[in-house]
Amino acid sequence: MLLLFIAAVAASAYLAHGLTPQPLPTAALMASPGQATVESSPVPTPWPTWTPTPILSPVSSASPTVPTDQPPAPSATLTPPQVTATPLPALTTTFQSPIFDSPLATPTVAPQLSPTATRPSAQPQKPPTYTPYPTNTPPPPPYDFMVMGTPSKTLLPGGVDVCAKVFGRVFDQYGNNITSSVAVAVEWTDGYLLVGTPDKPINPDGTYEFCLSRGKFNIFVVAEDRSSEKYWFSTDEPNFTGQVVYEINFQLVR
After folding, report:
1. Does 211 or 42 have the greater pLDDT score?
2. Based on the structure, what is the number of domains in the chain?
3. What CATH code is carried by the domain that includes residue 212?
4. Strands (DSSP E) along the chain, which ranges?
5. Confidence check: pLDDT of 227 > 80
6. Quick one: how many helices (H) and strands (E) in the chain?
7. Which stretch, 62-66, 159-163, 183-187, has highest mean pLDDT?
8. In what order do the strands lie in the sheet with 152-157?
C-alpha cells in the first residue's frame, strides 16, 4: 500500500510538470540592414524540485513501538488569588495580675443599654367587687293554711268494712291549736261535708273528724278572709277489709 501511494504521488508530479508551458528559446535579434545578426544559444529550464511528504513507516512486527503518553501542555498558567489578612484590633488591658508583672489581656465588653421606658403613673387600686351568691329564699306560700308535715295513713284490718276515719288539728304560726276557731271541709265529686260548725262541732280533744266511705276526696280549712291548700287523698283499698285511718294537720303560715 505504501509503495502504491508513493507511485501515485510521483505520477501526479510528473503530469503537473508536463502540463507546465515551456519558455520559448531566445529568438535571433533582427538586425537592421548593414548590421551583423547576434544569435543566442537556448538556456535549459531546470526541473522543479519536489520534496516528498514524510510518511510514517509501517510498524514492524519484529520490534513493536509502544506509544508514550505525553501530558498536554498547559494552555494557561493559573495564579492563585492573593488573600490579604486584616489584623484584629489590639485588646486593651485593664487588669493587673497580682502574681505576674505583665497585665492580663481582658476584652472590653460594651455595656448593655436598657431601653428607657416611661413608667405609668400609679392608679388607685379599687377593691374587688364580689357578687353575693343568691340565697335560697323559699317563695312565699301560696295559701294562708298549708298542710303541716306529711299526712299519715293507717290500715286497721277487721271482719267488716267500717267508715274511713279522717281526723287532725289546725295550728297557728306559733304552734297553738286553733281548730275550734275554724272549720274543716271535705269535698268529692258531687258533694261536700263541713265540721266545726254549731251543728257539727269538733271533738273535745281539739281534733276534727270525718267518717267517710270508700272514695277519693279533697280536704281543706275554711276560715274568713283566709285561703287554704287542698289535700287530695283516697280511702279505696282493694282486697282489704277493715278501717282506713288518715291523720291530716294544717298550719297557718302567713
Report:
1. 211
2. 1
3. 2.60.40.1120
4. 145-147, 152-157, 164-168, 170-171, 183-188, 191-195, 208-212, 216-222, 231-234, 242-247, 250-252
5. yes
6. 1, 11
7. 183-187
8. 152-157, 242-247, 164-168, 208-212
Q: Which residue has the higher pLDDT, 188 or 135?
A: 188
Of 169, 153, 177, the residue nearest 209 (C-alpha): 169
42 within domain boundaries: no
Give residue for cell 519484529: 62
Whether 197 maps to a domain, the answer reads yes
Radius of gyration of the chain (CA): 77
pLDDT of residue 136: 75
Residues 6+ apart with CB under 8 A from 196: 179, 180, 182, 183, 184, 202, 208, 222
219 lies in some domain: yes
Q: Are 105 and 91 in contact (CB under 8 A)?
A: yes
Q: Which of 178, 197, 186 has the alpha carbon at shortest distance from 251? A: 178
Full residue range of the structural domain in which residue 169 is found = 145-252
